[in-house]
Amino acid sequence: MKNTSILDQIGNTPLVKSRVLNTNPNVSLYFKLEGNNPGGSVKDRAAYFMIKDALDKGEINSASKLIEATSGNTGIALAMIAGIFKLDLELVMPENATKERVQTMEAYGAKVTLHPEGIEGARDYAIDKVENDNYYSFNQFANDNNWKAHYHTTGPEIWRDTEGGITHFVSSMGTTGTIMGTSTYLKEQNKDIQIVGVQPTDDSNIPGIRKWPKAYLPKIFNADKVDSTLEVSRDEAVEMTRRLAKEEGIFAGMSSGGATAAAVRLANTLDSGIVVSIICDRGDRYLSSDLFK
To answer: Running DSSP on this structure, what letter comes out for residue 42?
Structure first.
């Protein structure tokens, strides 16, 4: 019997074709189901790369005090993997985080601190701990292993599973690791593949999709790697999240609904093509919110 660990199950997530939402017969729209990762989201990839690299370089060990600011999914992934490696981890989240996220992090053994000033305040809190209290932060917003995880895994998987036929890649932008790494790989294979980032409209708050103030723009972000951006409203994201569940059987969070709304809109404008959109996580971590009500 093959000797595998839970970490071996990160990646190689399914790519499934839209049956209902895409109505353009000349375009194929595929969803990459990142909720099938063991920690339930696309962030398992980056979390594993960041922790493994820090361990391999001797930057952290079981005596280290680790801290990370997160809006949710990265924290869950870090908590799962830190627990496996017996690492002491504190996660700082906006205080409006759903209870499922907090409880999942705690179940994996992490300490959770809720901050009243959103993700920006959580980031400032973590930076202060690093500078003044001898904590170590992976700093996903500036850590090259965030995007490299997708360069080495997500991009190659999409290229393989579309048999090199992908024409457009659509991804929500938060830390931007997914879109940066996947873009880098896909453009190396075919420079004509279009990379489309998804952002919220100015009046919308969509968990997992951000339009960052300049001071907080992730350092790993390179605008040259994104060919175009599409904006979605919170109402669009919510409606499409619900439709994903009811019509496609894909149970996901609001950022996935936002990306899907953009991907469907894009597909309707094309004469032909193969569009791949990221489904970031699973919907079960949003059940205490009003997302599905």
So the answer is: T
